[in-house]
């Protein structure tokens, strides 16, 4: 009686286990619990007593059952850990864990990318101070250095950076122009480029988030465009305010993949970069309830931001 009760208790535990359990003998299935059926995507009643391969439907798992050991593999869109003992196959779904790790890695890359901009700005300002400046210029540089330090502090306070909450307000897009031109001045000179502005609209968002997004778009245009003129233009319709950075490069074939982390266009092969700039732009735009996009225009390529009307 005690043995029977123990077996029933063991079976109840298997039935509730978060690990898939499959028992087999003479290459036929004699038991599998609900989790194993879910992971293998089979119906228990249809595979019990049937050949093992009918339940596994994967030669890698069949070989594992014969030889023993453990392995990690991708099976029908899931990432599984599998371990085989004599007559037993254990399965554990590690898809969520893998996705969390990938998300953490992506967040780490985005954080590094996000912090690089204010740090680079602060370093250039400090170098200017070291070289010696007139009193009036020194006060201006110190003011800019304070701005970058405050922005860095806000980034730290607002982690994670997917929304940058708490700093939203209505502001004129023209507010961002002086900061962006000062920061991009060396890059503009190096590329013999200039920016033409036509941004008369106001938006509701976090100014630091919009600054970062627009800086990334301008940086991309200067890095990958042909040089010369870069246009920043805003417009408005019933869907919201649209802010675009346009260059005169050869139109690209497909823009959407460029917004995926790590993806870079063919035109970027000779330019150093992480492939995170546009992915971050899309995250920032989502933070104020907008969107980021790329498209061809009559003169080349346009990458833009949309702001819902408030």
From TrEMBL:
Enzymatic class: transferase
Catalytic activity: ATP + protein L-histidine = ADP + protein N-phospho-L-histidine
EC code(s) of this entry: 2.7.13.3
Signal sequence bounds: none
UniProt entry keywords in alphabetical sequence: ATP-binding, Kinase, Nucleotide-binding, Transferase, Two-component regulatory system
GO terms assigned for molecular function: ATP binding; phosphorelay response regulator activity; phosphorelay sensor kinase activity; protein kinase activator activity
Span of domain Histidine kinase: 110-310
Gene3D superfamilies: 1.10.287.130, Histidine kinase-like ATPase, C-terminal domain, PAS domain
Superkingdom of source: Bacteria
GO biological process annotation, one example: osmosensory signaling via phosphorelay pathway
SUPFAM superfamilies (UniProt xref): ATPase domain of HSP90 chaperone/DNA topoisomerase II/histidine kinase (SSF55874), Homodimeric domain of signal transducing histidine kinase (SSF47384), PYP-like sensor domain (PAS domain) (SSF55785)
Protein name: histidine kinase
Source organism of the structure: Calidithermus roseus
Gene name of this polypeptide: phoR_1
